[in-house]
Amino acid sequence: MNPLSATLARVKPSPTMAISAKALEMKAADEDVIGLSAGEPDFDTPENIRAAGIRAIEQGRTRYTAPDGIPELKDAVCAKFKRDNGLDYTRAQVSIGSGGKQILYNALMATLNPGDEVVIPAPYWVSYPDMVTLAGGTPVIVEAGIETRFKLTARALEAAITPKTRWFIFNSPSNPTGAGYSWDDLKALTDVLMRHPHVWVMTDDMYEHLAYGDFRFCTPAQVEPGLYERTLTCNGVSKAYAMTGWRIGYAAGPEVLIGGMRKIQSQSTSNPCSISQWAAVEALNGTQDFLAPHNEIFVRRRDLVVDALNAIPGITCPRPEGAFYVYPSIEGLIGKTSAGGTRIDSDEAFVTALLEETGVAVVHGAAFGLSPYFRVSYATSDAALKEACARIEDFCGKLS
Broadest EC class (predicted)? Predict the structure, then answer.
């Protein structure tokens, strides 16, 4: 007898974690592997934040907290939203979770009924559709391809909304493309949403501070105040603050929704790690001086990778506005055969052959809902990126 549920059978394991695990296995076998699949900064957590975590341990702040966060962190979140986004929230409107993923999952679990639809632009972060499915909803995938620089158009959003639509999930800068929506881009989408008052907005702003050049981050409730009462603005400390392992995400929205999320969390994990919460207070309230130097490094790495990939015949790589990913097209390589004998009939075949024949680990576009592409994370050293790009160039040069 199979003990697993029918719901679980519809859910796929995370492809990014699967490829990262395979790369680690190859490294453990002493193979020369360069991992460009994980979405994780290679910077250490800043010293002041680490010190705050140590102080929390030394001061005995290691006991249970309120299920959805300590008051001090909720206050820091409210101050952050006011300072950075011009949004006013109270403690009662804030939820703290064990990472951004839990925040999104709690919200979907608290709101979706069978038959409810959730509009998700593709390419999307791999977990969105499966979380919707686990919560009993139906993902409605809307493609936003390279021709629109991976940004959803107002027309496409309007066409996807039905009377069953409960949520629109929005992510900028994007994982996996790095695409960032300008104020005007976002205003076109919020104008559509204002015409459909039954649709709620879930924003994933995890890469907010990783914005480059002339691009200026904005979030839906900031662009259209009329959406404030039906928007859950989600964020966290994982990426910009190099705190992926600390597992702290947060969100702010209507009290009734936050209350439902609190109920879900109280019966699942209860509170996030107390030590991590105190470190996150320092992250949000403390100096932000390290953000600009980190972004300068990311811009250099982005340009290195984009220029190198665009020099390879058959690959087209847009230059993104933020995050630390690029999402190149391999349309010009489909149908060819690798030196190792693999026919490149899909982006999954491409990344599998690339890993096996060159030791470079990237993620296939199908994992993010749009092919034929692959995702590169450039959150690693310049030396590793240069070597990886050289291997990709050599691999592509030997395709026939």
Answer: transferase
CA proximity to 176, closest of 373, 308, 316, 387: 373
Query: pLDDT of 186-234, one tens digit each?
Result: 999 999 999 999 999 999 999 999 999 999 999 999 999 999 999 999 9
- Proportion of the chain in helix, strand, coil states, percent, rounded to 5: 45, 15, 40
Q: Are 151 and 170 in contact (CB under 8 A)?
A: no
Residue 294 tokens read as 């980190």
Q: Is residue 145 part of a domain?
A: yes
pLDDT at 143: 97
Residues 165 and 279 in one domain: yes
Largest CA distance in the chain: 64
What pLDDT is attached to residue 186? 98
Tokens 């492809």 found at: 15
Residue predicted with more confidence, 6 or 75: 75
User: In a 3-state reduction of DSSP, which class is residue 261?
Assistant: helix
Do 255 and 380 share a domain, yes or no? no
Residue 58 falls inside a structural domain: no
Q: End of a domain among 231, 257, 285?
A: 285
What token pair was written down for 189?
């989408």
The pairs formed by 20-24 with CB atoms below 8 angstroms and a separation of 24 or more are 20/361, 22/355, 22/361, 23/355, 23/361
Distance CA 146, CA 316 (A): 9
| Structural domain includes residue 242 | yes
On whether both 250 and 296 belong to a single domain, the answer is: no
Burial of residue 387 (CB within 10 Å: 0-12, 13-18, 19+) is: middle
Structural domain that includes position 164: 64-285
pTM of the model: 0.95
Rounded Cα distance between 391 and 171, Å, is 31
Nearest alpha carbon to residue 239 among 299, 283, 287, 182: 283
Strand partners, 97: 249
Whether 154 and 269 map to the same domain: the answer is: yes
**In sequence order, which residues have a C-beta less than 8 Å from that of residue 222 and are 6 or more positions away?**
85, 86, 87
